[in-house]
Amino acid sequence: MSDTCIICQEQAGEVEVPGGYLLEDEDVVAFHVPPLSDRTCYLGHLLVTPRRHCPDFAGLDRHEAQAVGAAIATCSAALKRLGTERVYVATIGHRVGHLHVHLLARWPGTPDDVPWHAVDEWDGARRGGASEIALLVESLRVRIEPA
Predict the structure, then answer these.
(1) What does each C-alpha distance from 23 to 28, 76, 127 come to in angstroms?
(2) Torsion angles phi and psi, residue 131, rounded to 5
(3) Which of 12, 93, 102, 143 would be a feasible disulfide site paired with 78, CB 3.0-4.6 Å?
């Protein structure tokens, strides 16, 4: 764990994660992106993170890599069962030195000309605060099929 890593802080409970973890085990944690300060954020923006502070996929051992991949598939399937049209998966890792995989839901009604990387930016994007995130997480949690 790094004292200055936002992902480590979220995993340690130092940063509130509305709705709690969507998935967690000894290798991986998945949760909805929390709003910064008192702002809202895009509903359907999940993060899948290895439990261990690791900068990128190359640093994962085989077991961790399998856990991250399985969590991505599980969370993506839950988003699809909730009604999303698509789930985009991306990792950049430029500002935060802890691997975190972004899952971005594309909700029905999103205009066709909105690119994947801007689904959260158009005026009609689904946005909410901590309470709306918690409701969405609970809706996703019940749509996760047992392993």
Answers:
(1) 8, 12, 22
(2) -70, -40
(3) 143
Q: Kindly write down the DSSP assignment for every residue of the chain, as one continuous string.
A: --TT-HHHHHHTTSS--TT--SEE-SSEEEEEPPPSTT--EETTEEEEEESS--SSGGG--HHHHHHHHHHHHHHHHHHHHHT-SEEEEE---SS-SS--EEEEEE-TT--TTS-GGGTTTSTT--EE-HHHHHHHHHHHHTTPPP-
Q: Residue 110 and residue 93: Cα distance in Å, rounded?
A: 27
* Model confidence band, residue 1 (pLDDT cutoffs 50, 70, 90): low
Task: Indicate whether 2 pLDDT > 70.
Answer: no
pTM comes to 0.92
Q: Is 54 left (phi over 0), alpha (psi -120 to 50) or beta?
A: beta
CATH annotation of 6-141: 3.30.428.10
Largest CA distance in the chain: 42
- Ordered by start, the domain boundaries in the chain are 6-141
Q: pLDDT per residue over 76-96, tens digit each? A: 999 999 999 999 999 987 777
